[in-house]
Every structure is written in structure tokens, then in C-alpha cells.
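Protocol step 4 of 6.
Sequence for Neurotransmitter:Na+ symporter, NSS family (Halogranum gelatinilyticum) entered exactly as in the expression construct, tag removed. Do not edit the line below.
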Amino acid sequence: MSERETWATRAGFILAAVGSAVGLGNIWQFPFKTAQFGGASFLLVYLIAALGIGIPAMLAEFVIGRKTNLNTIDAFEKLGYRNWRIVGAIGLATGFWILSYYSVVGGWVLRYIGGSITGAYFSDPAAYFGQVSAGPEALALHAVFMALVVGIVALGIEDGIEKATKLMVPSVVVMLVGLAAFAFTLPGASEGYAYFLSPDFGALAANFTEIVPFAVGQAFFSLSLGMGAMITYASYIDGDESLFADSVTIVVLNSFVGILAGLVVLPLLFAQGIDPNTSGAGAVFVSVATAFAELPAGQVLGFVFFVVVLIAALSSAISLLEVVVSWAVDNTSYSRPVIATGLGGVIFALGIPSAWDTAWLTWFDNLAYQLLLPLSVLGILVFAGWVFGRPALGELLKGSDFGDGVGLTWLWTARTVVIVAVVGTLLLGLQTLFVGGAIVPPL
Ligand code: PFF
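Step 5 output, C-alpha cells:
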């Protein structure tokens, strides 16, 4: 897609937004964070955040993007608020930061595609994950994944990926449903369902301050919020369409995929006797690999599964790189391929520590969840709600069948409870980072 093309159809936009949203955040992050932070309690807070904060925040991004048809930084200037470009810049930086380690995990997926073909992970899935998730091999595959992302964005062949996305979402669903059905048959799985689906309110209360920043951050990460991605994608919307309906579709679909992944990974972890609290970043890789080792035709199934995950990861990663490239294309005289390659190189370099040692990956991830994402979403909400305000409402209602009442509800909830919730989340995150010491890098 060149800089100022527009989506041919409304479905094209929704599909691209879903392609951005559905990715490693759903299949990798969501199950492992759920496992780590208390199961159903985490799920509950996540769902409240996705619906209650995610939808209003996504609408805010859509409004800014569609109104201006500009990249995530210049959009603020066009609206007449030059100083607020800082909010766009924070989003851009957040995207940069996240893509650096997202690509490392994309590299793991590439490794698992190879591992499925050779059956390398069959004999000891946990040891295999340990081997391939860090060090020179992880670094090389981080480079390969990033090169794929750069190649797609540089050549402007996102069209191809959009087509692949059409197939990707149903394929992800089919694969996950199949694996969930397999997990269901395993002895011990029922404990996994209990952990995932029946909240323990006592534990939620006891661990509230830890669960909230991660569950809310997970909603932002998974919905591609706070990184300029939705602003950028909405900037390619040409006509009037109901942004409400679009955002609800995207949020529901995205949460559905995450929950499905949870219905695979949590029962598998319990059935395989893996401690959910310590399963960590390897949760999905190890549990699913163990399942493939037991299944008939496991090599073929594993191969297909990881290829589908790769497409999901690519369609998300290109939306992140697209945000930065879109800005640079508008603001410099370099060509798109040069920009994509240059920025891709910088992002690759930023990801080197994460590829070398998963402790760094965790550190980058923590900072994104506890600081960058909530800060960035907060900036967007304050801008759309309080600064842009009434005109935002007009833009929101364009093409929508909903009346002023719904629009005003959005405006006032965004201005009040939603902002308060995000401020609360941010404060909790800052507390963990600065008081709890999580800000100290793993040197
Ligand atoms: N939402 C994507 C996922 O859940 O995998 C990750 C992502 C893509 C985050 C694009 C941010 C973004 F701009």
C-alpha cells in the first residue's frame, strides 16, 4: 500500500485491522501472561479492559486517523495541535520498542517451523525451547524475521499479506479449535479449565496491583493500541463507515482468538504437569510442541500450525513497521525501500539483547506493558476526549447509525472513567517499575 491509498472496501480495513490485532499477542503473550498472573482473574480483568478501555481508546485512534488521513505524528498538527505531536511520537517509539522483541519471538516461530519439519523438538520440547529461544540461533532468526517484515513493507506488498490474512484468521481459529479439542481429551486438563475460567476473587484481590497493569497492558498490546497502528490504518479510510461497529468487531474477534489460545495452552500445561506460574515465555511453544509430539502426523500438524502463527505474526509486525515508515515517507525525501530497510536495521539492533537472553526480552516487555503502552493510550484519550473534544464526536458519528446519545456516552466515558482507569493502571505499573525495582535492566 503506498502512503495515501485508501482501503478499497470497508471489509479491507477491518481485515487489515484484525490482521494487525491478531498475532503473537493472542497466541503467545495472552496464554503465558494468563498462566503467570493467576488464570481466570487475569482473564476477567483483561476482558473488562478490552471492552471498557479498548473500545473507547480504539475509537479515539480511529477518529484521529480518519479525520486527518495522516501518519500518527502529523495527524496532531493537522488538527491544529502541534504540541500534541508528542503523543504521536510516544506511540511511534512504543511501536519501535515492541517490534524489537516481537521480531525475536517471530524468529522462534520460524525455528519451530523448521523444528516441525525435522521433528527436532519431539524428544524434549522444554530443552528445545531453551536451546532456540536465546543465543546466536535466536539472533540469526530474529534477523530473518525482521528481513521478511522489511521486505514486505519495502516492496509495498502488504496487499499480499492482506490476502493471506483473510485465510490466516479462519486458519488460526481452526487450528486452535482442533488443538483445544485434543487438549480436552487429556487427563488433567480439567484443572486447566478451572484455573483459566473460574476466577478466584480472593486471589484477584490479593494480587490486584500486579494483575491490573499486565492485564490492561495485554489488552492494549493485543488490540494494537498506543502504537499509532490504528491511527495509521484508519488514516487510509476513505468513506464514512460506522467506526463503532468496526471497533466492536475487531475487539470481539481479537478476544475470541486469545481465549481460544488459552483453551489450548492452559489445559495442555496442566495435563503435561508444567507449572503455569513458571512456564513463562515458553508456555505456548513447549505445551503445543509436546502435544504435536504425541499426535499422529505431529510433524505435519506442527508445520501447518507454526506457518499459520508466522502469518499472524507477520501481519502484525508489518503494521508496526508501517507506522514508522508511513511517518518517514511523509517527512523525508528517502524512498520507501531505503526507509524501511534503515528503520528495520535499527529495530533489529534494538532487539539484539532480547534475542541473546530472554531476561532482556522480559525487561523490554515489562517496560512496554507497565509504562509505554498505558502512557501512550492515556495521551490519546486525553487528546481525543479533552483537547479535540466535540469535533472528535462529529467525526465519530459520521457514517454511524447511532445517535448523539451513543457518541456522547463515548465522549464522557472516555473523558472520565476510562482516563481514570488508565491513570490507575499507569501508576500501578510505575510502582512495580520504580518501587519494585523492575526498571533495573538485567545487566
Ligand atoms: N496486536 C499484535 C498482537 O497481538 O500480536 C501486536 C501488535 C501489532 C502490537 C501491531 C502493536 C501493533 F501496532
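Step 6, annotate. The chain has 19 helices and no strands.
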